Amino acid sequence: MTKQKSGKYNSPAQATIKGITDLFKKKERVGELKADERLDGKKVLVTGASSGLGYAVASQLAERGATVIMAVRSGIPEKGERIKEKTGSNNVYMLHVDLLDIESIQELVLNVKKQFGKIDALVSNAAAVTAGSRETKYGFDEMLMVNYLAPYLLIRLLIQEQCLVPNHDNPPRIIVVSSESHRNAKSFDWENFGKYKSFPVGKTVEHYGYTKLLLTTFVYELSKRLNTADSVSCSVFALCPGPVNSNIAREAPKIFHPLLKLVFSLFFRSPDKAAEPVLYHTISSDQQGKAFDYLFLMSRKEVDSKAMDPENGKKLWELSEKLLTDLGVNLASVNSKGSLVQ
Q1: Hey, which residues does 121 pair with through a beta bridge?
Q2: Which residues contact 75 (CB under 8 A, 6 or more apart)?
Q3: b vs e for 4-25, b when ≥16 Cβ sit within 10 Å of the residue's Cβ?
Q4: How far apart are the C-alpha atoms of 43 and 45, rounded to whole Å?
Q5: Beta strand pairing call for 121-124 and 92-96
Q6: Which of the residues 70, 124, 223, 282 has the least number of beta carbons within 10 Å of its own beta carbon?
Q7: Residue 132 contacts residue 199 (beta carbons within 8 Å)
Q8: Is the pTM for the entire model greater than 0.90?
């Protein structure tokens, strides 16, 4: 394991304080999402769309004319009906998915292919913060599965099943909600990658940051594999929306819920406001034809150097693929020149 400098925070309190202070720091904006930029006739798949940031993103995409496909574990059909009523759009659909279940993810992709064919964009938003470690039926930690392996598998399958089709003339967009906490992870634990290890609730923030490092590293590697220096066939974007007043901390000890509710309401941004960088990546003409970009709030940043290291990207890709193929998942390879190889 390569040694890195210590992270910025390792507890919920430190993470909360850091998130609040980041909101008030002066940052240069990348631009503005114009009122007349729309997605009429475009199909966008949004995961984790039944609440919080994902629900806000789905609502605003519908307002701008997109056909919105909400991939959710719960809230069917009431959440979709609520967005239809709010936006006046009838092009809002809901599909069930359990991101802890590989077969459910495979079924989601097949349903997207059957019902909608090719989509124009994916917003991979769903995430989990658990109260300590929790083992899935596959022997993975739950946060590793939801925050990293599920998006990895979903994106690979959407490309493989030609729901997301790389196209040099009109590149589709993949938008992944990551976190600035990806910088907190000190190193990659390749030796124990995918192996379940118990950790207490006090290590939750540290582990969450590690899963976001994996996610950000994958996204950066994916862009390199789908695009070349001379040609972009699929725009791959990531972002940190900053602290969001959502229910992501619902598994915190109940004794802290009143305090968290107060802090979130006073200092964290509403999902509607926090959705701005997601919408910018998904809609803005400023992002057309770009291979990769990362936004923190509405400011452009480089991702952590560990995530940009080509050896880390290659290693992570191969280990992730092996984990899934060992479970019987059939994945076509994506080579370094962006080609699918069966």
Answers
A1: 44, 173
A2: 50, 51, 94
A3: eeebebbebeebbeebeeeeee
A4: 7
A5: unpaired
A6: 223
A7: yes
A8: no
Chain-centroid distance, C-alpha 12: 21
- Domain span holding position 116: 38-341
- Walking along the chain (342 residues) 10 residues at a time, the average pLDDT comes out as 45 53 74 95 98 97 98 98 98 98 98 98 96 94 98 98 95 97 94 94 91 98 95 97 72 54 63 96 96 97 97 98 96 59 38
DSSP annotation string for 273-339: HHTHHHHHHHH-GGGTT-SEEEEETTEE-PPPHHHH-HHHHHHHHHHHHHHHHTTT----EE-TTS-
Query: What are the backbone angles phi and psi of residue 37, rounded to the nearest 5°?
Result: -85, 125
Q: Which residue has the tokens 């939750």?
A: 204
Which CATH number fits the domain that encloses residue 106? 3.40.50.720
| Residue 16, domain member (yes or no) | no
Cα 64 to Cα 136: distance, rounded to the nearest angstrom: 38
Give me the amino acid identity at 269. R
β-bridge pairing 235-240 and 292-296: parallel
Residue pointed to by tokens 């690979």: 156
Total number of domains in the chain: 1
CA dihedral 203, 54, 340, 234 (to 10 degrees): -110
- Residue 159 tokens, joined: 């490309």
Q: Which of 191, 212, 208 is closest to 199 using CA atoms?
A: 208
